[in-house]
Amino acid sequence: MKWLWIVLVSLLSFQVLAAAEEKYSKTEILDRPLMERYILDELKSLRMDQQDLERRLTIQITDRELDVADKSLNYSNITVTYFFYIIAGVASLVALVGWQSLKEIKHNTKEMADKRLNEITMSYEKKFGALERDLKRKTRIITENNREIEIINEVHNLWLRAQSAQTPEQQIETYDEILKIRPGDLEALTHKADAAMEINEYHWALSICNRVLEVDDSNGHALYQRACAYSRLGAEEQAINDLKLAIESSNSLRELAAEETDFELLRGNVRFEALIDPTEHS
């Protein structure tokens, strides 16, 4: 706005000067000082009007800025006041109406949390219980396996001792120790029957073989030992029948029977000879 007034004043000054020059050309030289005085007064008047206009514009702009700031401050004050009124109202409503509800919510939340914790605790107790049972079972299995290994080693040592024994009596004692560790061990019983045959305890050997055959009626070793016992006791047919079953279960016993001294009484028996050498009697 200030620059606009300056431009207007300049244009007006140029017009005044132009008019003055034109007037100077038409008037006499004596009238020129009056014209200059007139122009100067006009310029002074214009400058004063411009200054007055600037002053009034400044006052108006300042008033408007103050008015806007006052309205903004008033709006902010009202907004904050309403906001606090709303908060106070909600707080009062909660205090008057919802206190019991808050207590119930707190109580229900606590019950829910306790229930959930109990469920989690029970779940982990079950898992830990199952884990403990599994560990106990595995520990028991490991203990049993260790015990079985110890038994196997002990039995193995006893078998080695039986093989290195000098007399059948010593072998029988060793087999009895094996049977104490493993009652009903068929292999130990058959070897014990073999040792009994060596000390001419034929009835004892026969009884031991019967015990084995009650459990395993196709045990070739027990059938062979019982055939030897029957042969020594003179029961040829029974001896040949057991020998036949023994050879059928294990063909390697045929060669052993051909050289067995316990079958001396069966030599010359057609059935016996056919068993130990079937090619000659085919």
Automatic annotation (TrEMBL):
InterPro entries: TPR-like_helical_dom_sf, TPR_rpt, Ycf3
Entry-linked Pfam families: TPR_8
Keyword Repeat: yes
Membrane-spanning parts: 82-102
SMART domains named among the record's database cross-references: TPR
SUPFAM superfamilies: TPR-like
Signal peptide per UniProt: 1-18
UniProt KW keywords: Membrane, Repeat, Signal, TPR repeat, Transmembrane, Transmembrane helix
NCBIfam families xrefs: TPR_END_plus
Name listed for the protein in its UniProt record: Tetratricopeptide repeat protein
Organism: Vibrio casei
Top-level taxonomy: Bacteria, Pseudomonadati, Pseudomonadota, Gammaproteobacteria, Vibrionales
